[in-house]
Amino acid sequence: MSDTLDKNEILGWLRETNPERLAGLWRRADETRRRHVGDAVHLRGLVEISNYCTRQCAYCGLRAGNLQIPRYRMLADEILEAARQAVKFGYGTIVLQSGEDYGLTTRWLAELIRQIKRETPLAVTLSLGERSNRELAVWREAGADRYLLRFETSDRHLFHEIHPPKGTRPCDRLGILRRLKALGYEVGSGIMVGLPGQTFASVANDIEVFRELDLDTIGIGPFIPHPGTPLGLGFNIFPPVNGEQVPNHELMVYKVIALTRLVRPDANIPATTALATINKKHGRELGWQRGANLFMPNLTPLKYRRLYEIYPAKACIAETDVTCHGCLHARIQTIGRHVGQGPGGRRNRDLPGAEGVSGGRNLPQLPARFSMSRVLASSESPPVANLRFGSEPVV
Asked: In this structure, are residues 86 and 45 in contact, taking their beta carbons and an 8 Å threshold?
């Protein structure tokens, strides 16, 4: 099996059911992972800073139409305390995640990023949905290192069925990913496996998109709908796929992780929380042994964590950050791997082979010809209130 798989080979592996042949795929993906990114499992502390969202995605519990969940936005001091906890645990990155919430204003978040950078050595990853060029540029200049935005599926019709556009603004996540790269971010994206209406050919194309975009981080998880959403309630909004419907079980997720490792050998690939949710006992470990090299332990305060319910029964929803930290170290050591040090970025990674690969401060720099004035002139952000840093964002 070659690391340069073509699309037909990818399609064949996605349909493969023979356990012996699949065992060969797992071995090849694990060896490719070891050669290109080493044996470290990097831990990136996740903080779910707001569960407000303006969008109406057909599967997500944070969708604007869900009136059953209390909404929250974390205070700056609470987020900074989570960042300090990440440093105490030895994590190299903090991930600030929310719904698409314009109550988190451009200026407020920029100052928060600056303060995290002043007080800690952490890399800062943002995962805040589809945002304007202006916002992305301001946050990059403030010091944000990475941005995560899943394109979910390369099938444009399917994407628009499950992600209704907001007003007349079209969704162009692939275009946003390219703009993020131009701004100098390390760029992460990914897909859900088993979306209703998703075919094997569609997933094969998704993997080709991973290859073409040269993504730095690639997240792959199973489709798990929230029960209070159209897809969770069983609304049949997709035509039958005539045997080509991709299942959302863990075996299919492992196949996509392994094949993604083969086509993007040096990318960072997490064993996602969603994967750990459908197999709480061994999902993380099997993901790490089939191509993955990251995990994002949850540092969100417990009083908020249960309210960030994208899908039900999330793994580690009731564990304290201290308990989760100890558990992860034990799990990683059990499979003969070690916890990574430093930010664990993909850019300028040292050649593997030595302990601590990618442990240095190998973060992206702003492009040499980066012009804030040009970027700011190119796009206006949505109208939001100006906020004093240290206060709670507007509701």
From this structure: yes
The rounded Cα 123 to chain-centroid distance in angstroms is: 15
Find the Cα–Cα–Cα–Cα dihedral 287, 290, 291, 295, rounded to 10°.
Answer: 10
Residue 134 lies in a domain: yes
Cβ neighbours for 336, distance < 8 A, ≥ 6 positions apart: 39
148, part of any domain: yes
Number of domains in the chain: 1
Within a domain: residue 389?
no
The partner residues of 69 in beta bridges, in order of sequence, read none
Residue tagged 């694990």 (tokens): 30
Tens digit of each residue's pLDDT (9 = 90 or more) over 210-236:
999 999 999 999 999 999 999 999 877
Using left for φ > 0, alpha for ψ between -120 and 50, and beta otherwise, residue 232 falls in alpha
Q: What is the pLDDT of residue 371?
A: 52
Residue range(s) defining the domain that contains residue 154: 7-378
CATH number at residue 209: 3.20.20.70
- pLDDT reported for residue 240: 73
pTM of the model: 0.89
